[in-house]
From TrEMBL:
Keyword Glycoprotein in record: yes
InterPro entries, A to Z: Noelin_dom, Olfac-like_dom, Olfactomedin-like_domain
GO cellular component: extracellular space; synapse
Pfam families: Noelin-1, OLF
Localisation per UniProt entry: Secreted; Synapse
Record's protein name: Olfactomedin 2a
Residue stretches making up the Olfactomedin-like domain: 156-408
Keyword entries, A-Z: Coiled coil, Disulfide bond, Glycoprotein, Secreted, Signal, Synapse
Disulfide bonds: 157-339
UniProt keyword Manganese present: no
Length: 415
């Protein structure tokens, strides 16, 4: 996205008119981008609000049963009474969360209406230039951007509760591969990268926008100085992080300078199909990013083949902290990080579900049961993008997206 602060100053007659016409087009593009972002935010808030409303109904039912038991204690034994009381206590904190969701939902509707009105004004400007105060228009768009970012920041991290139906973006490449957008927050980078195959590949295709990727047009090629292994690559803040072929070395390749900025061995990590996911494909080392930064998922011989999570320093690739999940990597189809939690699928084939979660903030785990539709029956890459809050997957030569539903605790100004 091109921000208004980057626009050049202008003055004078016909030149001002020409510049203003150009800038009006740029502003219109910005408004469209903001509107699309709000549509995504609106959809996600609606889903989460439905979830909270269901929880509210459950609380009322449990509370009703508790009142009956309180009025007639003989109808419930002490153990059952205590269980009901504990459930109500756990549910009570959801009430302020529900109220905040309702408030945010109304705010989103107001923002969307304001953008719609502004778009109409812009269309009129493009037809009759000079009839609107440019500086006032610029300030309104900047205000919209500020309010949008404030709203999105309130929707903080949360626990994964659901995955949408698949959205097939494109069918291209071989059975195995990876594709991605920049995972850094915040970022206005709209480029899409595609890396076909998992064995000794060096060619990375860079598309200008998602629409260009869908059409297979407007792309440039990067030829990496070292081949890759697996499909566990990630783009973070304009650089590609990937596993060097036949090694446990991680490489940071900068796209704009077309150069390797740093490379570092991931000490003890298995490679060359020593500890891959269930589908193989040299998927020993899986790099990923979430709201908390850059991560590596792998395993070692001392860890007996169980999944290890390490948080990495993006500049030096130094390991900052490591967790042993106790989950065997060969039993996992794929995995991804959301808000510091590693989610693991039980298969790469049809019928797969997300059934294990490891929480790095508490060093604890639980078994989950979150189904998702594996439409093309062979997933060889599955990564979360925190900017867009979607899962990117490469599924048997198809590039597929999934929206995710997170149960989120809203941050208030007092937090």
């Amino acid at each position: 996205m091109l921000w208004l602060k980057d626009m050049p100053p202008h003055d004078g007659g016909a030149v001002r008119c020409d510049v203003m016409e150009t800038e009006a087009g740029l502003i219109f593009s910005i408004v469209q981008n903001i509107s699309q972002s709000m549509e995504v935010l609106d959809l996600r808030t609606y889903r989460d609000l439905q979830y909270v409303r269901n929880t509210e109904s459950l609380m009322k039912v449990v509370d009703g049963k508790l009142k009956v038991a309180s009025e007639n204690p003989r109808s419930l034994n002490p153990k059952g009474f205590q269980e009901l009381k504990d459930k109500v206590t756990q549910l009570l904190p959801l009430l302020p969360v529900l109220e905040q969701y309702k408030t945010d939902a109304k705010m989103i509707l107001r923002l969307r209406e304001e953008v719609r009105n502004l778009s109409l004004v812009l269309m009129a400007i493009q037809e009759e230039m000079g009839a609107y105060d440019y500086e006032e228009l610029r300030q309104r768009v900047l205000l919209l951007e500020t309010r949008l970012h404030s709203c999105m920041q309130k929707l903080g991290c949360g626990k994964l509760t659901g995955v949408s139906n698949p959205i097939t973006v494109r069918a291209s490449g071989s059975r195995f591969g990876s594709w991605m957008t920049d995972t850094m927050i915040p970022s206005s980078d709209n480029r899409v990268w595609s890396m076909d195959g998992y064995f000794k590949g060096r060619r990375v295709l860079e598309y200008r926008t998602m629409n260009d990727f869908m059409k297979g047009q407007n792309f440039v090629q990067h030829l990496l100085p070292h081949p890759w292994a697996g499909t566990g690559h990630v783009v973070y803040n304009g650089s590609l992080y990937y596993n060097k072929y036949q090694s446990n070395i991680i490489i940071k390749y900068h796209f704009r300078s077309r150069s390797v900025l740093v490379q570092r061995s991931l000490s003890g990590a298995g490679y060359n199909n020593t500890f891959p996911y269930s589908w193989g494909g040299s998927s020993d080392i899986d790099l990923m990013a979430d709201e908390n930064g850059l991560w590596a998922v792998y395993t070692t011989i001392p860890n007996a083949g169980n999944i290890v999570i390490s948080r990495l320093e993006p500049q030096s690739l130094e390991v900052l902290q490591t967790w042993d999940t106790g989950f065997p990597k060969r039993s996992a189809g794929e995995s991804f990080m959301i808000c510091g939690t590693l989610y693991v699928t039980n298969s790469h084939l049809a019928g797969a579900k997300i059934y294990f979660a490891y929480y790095t903030n508490t060093s604890s785990y639980e078994y989950t049961d979150i189904p998702f539709h594996n439409q093309y029956s062979h997933i060889s890459m599955m990564d979360y993008n925190p900017r867009e809050r979607v899962l990117y997957t490469w599924n048997n030569g198809h590039q597929v997206l999934y929206n995710v539903t997170l149960f989120q605790v809203i941050k208030t100004s007092g937090d």
